[in-house]
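Hello,

Our lab assistant flagged a job as stuck in the queue for most of the afternoon. It eventually completed. Since we weren't sure the result was trustworthy after the delay, we are filing this so someone can double-check. Below is the sequence as submitted and the structure that was eventually returned. Let us know if re-running is recommended.
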Amino acid sequence: MNNTATVKAPETVKFSKKDPAMFFKTLHSRVNSYFKDQNITKTGNINMYIKTIAMLSFYIIPFVLVLTGVVTGVATLAMYAIIGIGVAGIGLSVMHDANHGSYSKNKFVNTLLSLSMNMVGGSSFTWKMQHNLMHHTYTNIYHLDEDIDDKPFLRLSPHGKMKSYHKFQHIYAPILYSLATISWISFKDFKQLRAYNRSGLTVKTGHNPVLITLKMVFSKLCYFFIFLGLPLILGVQWYYAIPGFILAHLIAGFIITVIFQLAHVVEGPEHHDAMETPEMENTWAIHQLRTTANFSPKSKLITWFVGGLNFQIEHHLFPNICHIHYPKVAEIVRNTVAEFDLPYHEYRKLNEAFQSHLRVLKSFGNPNLAVG
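-- returned structure --
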């Protein structure tokens, strides 16, 4: 869904280094003490491994049932719907931690599971560049955070370019969200990679642009052959295989996009413009608090399925910690934030966060409306 804008050098924005109260140093020390006192690692454990098996099963087993003809006819579409849930689950709960290096202490395991992004049609490389490097560093900073760049028909920042149709975006946005992974696997990755290659970011991060491009082309060809071509070759009717493939991505796109939107484009989090404020008044850690929100902290089911991304504040402050630890880490963060009198944006329920997101979209499309 992300439409890559012109990539600017990371040095465009600088965060303040002044933290006289030593908020993050205090918080970091307390979180480290928690893991030391509990004698547990910051990476995944058996619960993470079980979740990985479950998410991969949602993705692989229905597909095998379709390929082998165990499931045929209209029921094929039900299998593709489950595959869509699996795509979202892999992206939110497996790939995400692996690409952050927080899934395992073993670098090879992280690298291997980060490729689950490629297995669902995306690119691990462009994800790391767009998400780990740009989004996590420059959260909600227009021109640098691609998550809030201007999208086709969407204005996700109060600093974005205004179009007349944006006044209706709170109505049609959920439909566009469903198209996110279809856009992602077909052309977004290529558009992003071209921008990173031209800006020099690919080389700066130690990669060869030509080699990365060839790997992406090969990965995409393999994906489309296996998940779209192979069913047709093995006799799955095209009027089930093609609509089923699209259905899977409509479901995955909606789930993934909504979860990420609820973290930053809701009432509470701040928005900035890199061109207007190249030097931020807050430290990076305090900036994360001011631009990020949590939701549904008490829902074990949501926390399990979305990979702890409902604890987005904790994730942004500690992306190197596996998400299975976030509920406990959140207790430390909340107490420390309250002690330092800093903001902590949180919505109790998923529907409350979603309604807030729609209200923000409406306000961004109607400048006369104030964001709550």
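-- support follow-up --
The delay was a queue issue, not a problem with the job. The result is valid. The two ends are 26 Å apart (CA to CA). Strands lie at 141-142, 272-273, 293-295, 345-347.
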